[in-house]
Amino acid sequence: MTQFDKIHTVEQNFSKSNPKHLKSMFGATDLMPLWVADMDFEIAKPIQEALQKLVIRNMYAYEFNTDEVFKAISDWNLKRHKLHLHPKLFVQVPSVLTGIGVLIRELSEKGDGILVQTPVYHQFFKVIESAERKVIHNKLKMVNGLYFMDFEDIERKFKTLNIKAVLLCNPHNPVGRVWSKDELQTLIDLANKYNITVISDEIHSEIVYSNSQFISMASLNKSENHITILGSPAKTFGMQSIANGYLYIADSEILNRVKHTVESLYLGHGSIYSANATIAAYTKGEEWLDALLVYLEKSMQWIENFIQNELPEVVFYKPEGTYQVWLDFTKLNLSDAALKHLVVMQAKLALAPGDWFESTHTQFMRMNIASPLSKIQQAFYQLKKAIEAGVDSTFIEEEIK
């Protein structure tokens, strides 16, 4: 038994298991919540200890530690990825989404287009539209069970639409692609050709499996193109309610503009809790992360085997990165409503609906697997039982009416 096999009681005030949230989104409360991209694991001991030291002081005066935070991030990237990131080029923000919102406003005007590869993390749509910019869809192509960017479509849209930035997700949420060096370079070359900025959300960069390699956009920034990187220890170390985000901007003009905006809105003054937790994660959390990756890969292998042998009706796109599983239920040949009823009301699972990520993906769902394997196994047993039983006859009768 590993540290990740321990079953913890999921607090009902956590977003994913809050009864009000479950009821409003799924129509039921007695569900296994696997819809939010966070973890059901205890965070690494060094992070716990760093936070406990702060709590027992009983004094909470103003305290900032951003220089040490940026040094820890820089040192981590050099050790882990051989990536040289200068500490002076970081900007702290409350979250990656906050950073994206700031960048979109600094790099474009109202009415401009921001291109995304869909299906994609649904909050991208919200952060673009709330800035009064237009979401431009570049639909991913499926080839032999793997998603790829459609570069012909990208160039066509760069040529004909008023696009000012590409918002890239790497590794990609929800499909799990870790974009190759060649793919990223092709995107950069196209962006350079049409003077378009690349904004790279790399929050999942540390959750990459053994047959893949994460390549940061920062490692390829050898051109005049403006490239900005966003990251956070939140997804990697299970610190979603604590950790801040950060931007890395090599272009001095953009860096100064973003710093001015962040400082004028007082967005850069993170808490000492976030700072010390981040420092602990990046200086003492590597052993925990390596063990986590082994565990998650074991879970992925179990899922792949189970679906192949027990659930051939469900298509599993094995991810190269992230702890999200993208499931395709098309072969069940159910209506959208019947599929949701089967998964939610019969299998008792709260999964993220595919149409969150792109409106046409109604036969897909995203499952978070950052939980003890026994819990993930139980989820698939429940799903298999529901599929074998078929959709409730009472629901079918109501649907026909």
Taking all residues together, what is the mean pLDDT?
Answer: 94
Structural classification: alpha/beta
Question: Any idea what the radius of gyration is?
Answer: 21 Å
Q: Which topology of the largest domain does CATH recognise?
A: Aspartate Aminotransferase, domain 2
Q: What is the rounded distance between the termini?
A: 51 Å
- Beta-strand content: 15-25%
CATH class of the largest domain equals Alpha Beta
User: How many extended strands?
Assistant: 15
The count of domains is 2
Major sheet summary line = 7 strands, mixed
Shape: globular
The CATH homologous superfamily of the largest domain is termed Type I PLP-dependent aspartate aminotransferase-like (Major domain)
Helix content: 40-55%
- Identify the strand order in the major beta sheet: 2-10-9-8-7-3-4
- Give the SSE string: HEHHEHEHEEEHEHEEHEHHHEEHEEEHH
Any idea what the CATH architecture of the largest domain is? 3-Layer(aba) Sandwich
- Low-pLDDT runs of 5+ residues are none
SS element count, helices: 14
Family: Belongs to the class-II pyridoxal-phosphate-dependent aminotransferase family. MalY/PatB cystathionine beta-lyase subfamily.
Domain Aminotransferase class I/classII large: 66-371
Cofactor: pyridoxal 5'-phosphate
Keywords: Aminotransferase, Lyase, Pyridoxal phosphate, Transferase
